């Protein structure tokens, strides 16, 4: 869907901060499925966590991403997604060899412009929900920088600048007021 714009890339690269800046500018946003799943699983004692059962975690991320898309269809205007279905399908394919990326990627399209945060070691911080290290985050980024173009998306690497300048870059690239 042309109104659905993906913000993806290296974990810890400033996606959530950028998403908040876009929300403050009046755009609809959808928070990262992974963070929401980890919070739910930690609250309920569940095991669908990336460090406990990665495949279950990824499958939950796919389900949540599909639900997010369905809910976002009722919103007007541009909707920015912090990660989403393509990221989860890429991870599932990488982990299991299933052809998830091709099937989900072709059935559920987003705006042709995808914005990726590059690795930014100076701001990367692990936390209670982000337990992987920077090298794992970089490996994921390197996979996504190949997978998005393979599905026909135009990838824009976000500059390592302040959040408002990043938001200006996104809005300008999309031709938004």
Automatic annotation (TrEMBL):
Domain of life: Bacteria
SUPFAM superfamilies on file: P-loop containing nucleoside triphosphate hydrolases (SSF52540)
NadR/Ttd14 AAA domain: residues covered: 5-166
InterPro entries: NadR/Ttd14_AAA_dom (IPR038727), P-loop_NTPase (IPR027417)
Protein name: NadR/Ttd14 AAA domain-containing protein
Annotated source species: Rhizobium freirei PRF 81
């Amino acid at each position: 869907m042309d109104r659905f714009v993906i913000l993806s890339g290296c974990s810890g690269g400033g996606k959530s901060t950028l998403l908040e800046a876009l929300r403050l500018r009046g755009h609809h946003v959808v928070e990262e499925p992974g963070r929401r799943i980890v919070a739910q699983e930690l609250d309920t004692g569940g095991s669908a966590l990336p460090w406990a059962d990665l495949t279950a975690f990824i499958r939950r991320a796919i389900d949540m991403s599909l639900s997010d898309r369905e809910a976002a269809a009722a919103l007007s205007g541009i909707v920015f997604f912090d990660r989403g279905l393509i990221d989860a399908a890429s991870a599932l394919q990488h982990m299991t060899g299933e052809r998830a990326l091709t099937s989900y990627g072709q059935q559920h399209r987003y705006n042709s412009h995808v914005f990726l945060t590059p690795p930014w070691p100076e701001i990367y911080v692990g936390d209670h929900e982000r337990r992987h290290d920077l090298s794992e985050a970089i490996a994921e980024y390197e996979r996504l920088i190949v997978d998005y173009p393979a599905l026909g998306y135009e990838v824009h690497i976000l500059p390592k600048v302040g959040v408002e300048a990043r938001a200006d870059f996104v809005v300008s690239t999309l031709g938004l007021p």
